[in-house]
Amino acid sequence: MHGMGVSGGRRTQLLRGVLDLCLLAVMGEGPAYGYEMTKRLGERGLSIVGEGSIYPLLGRLERDGLVDTHRAASNGGPPRKYYRLSREGQLALTSGVREWQCTRDAVDGVLGVANTEVSL
Amino acid sequence: MSQFVDECRREWSRLGMPEAEANEMASDLEADLAEARADGVSPEEVLGNGYFDPKSFAASWAMARGVVSSTPRDRSTIRIRSLLLAFSALVGAVVAGLGLLILVRPRFGSQAMAVPVARRFSRPVPSILVNPHQFLFAGQGSAIDPLGWVLLIAGLTGLVVILWVWRPWSSHGGGTGFDQNIGMPSFL
Question: Does the pTM of the predicted model rise above 0.90?
């Protein structure tokens, strides 16, 4: 139980650091509204069940000028707020991906050689 | 309108959010939840932990968008802390001043004070700075001098502690339920 709790907490911490990049990345595929982005994340295996919500994060990205927004009709539904990458957002995504790759490689260098077998 | 969205609306209204912004956010949220429901997706999968705490979710979203700077509870906490710090600083200053007054009291009555008082107009620097021993130790042996020192040191220590507390607190804005280091709502 304890191990599961620690593991869940770590996942949340890891997500906190990269979820904004993930949102920018899925927005890079084309403008999307809130739920559509959740679906795109899910299709790539990134579920946020039991974690936080993307809405406050979208608000911050908008406030920071990393995304542009416009309202448009969705498929047969009511008008929705669509988010798309701004130029600043594209730059942030580029530098963020580079940072992530460096960090991931460094962590892999350490954890990749760790002995993960538990002797009984 | 779903109960969740309704509770969010109430929280936004309580926070003083502009009606147009609140309408837009509620409409988007309602549409997203309806589409998720049609897809067989639960609200928890869309809203995460925020689904179980609509007030925090609504406040975090509003603050992240910059529509409200902080919740009324945050503002109230900041006001109370500021008043407490100001009052503590005042008490510290009064205590230190009282201690200083006890230590320099011979200036107002003893013969030893005649010289510095007579030169006060010809010397731009206060005499207490030039000859502090004449002021601070003129009454050596008095029974209440230790009290003066205690008050002075306690008051000055208190002021330093208040400054120590105030600086990091004021630079962090007192906390808003938003994780500034990683830019994510703290409830994530």
Answer: no
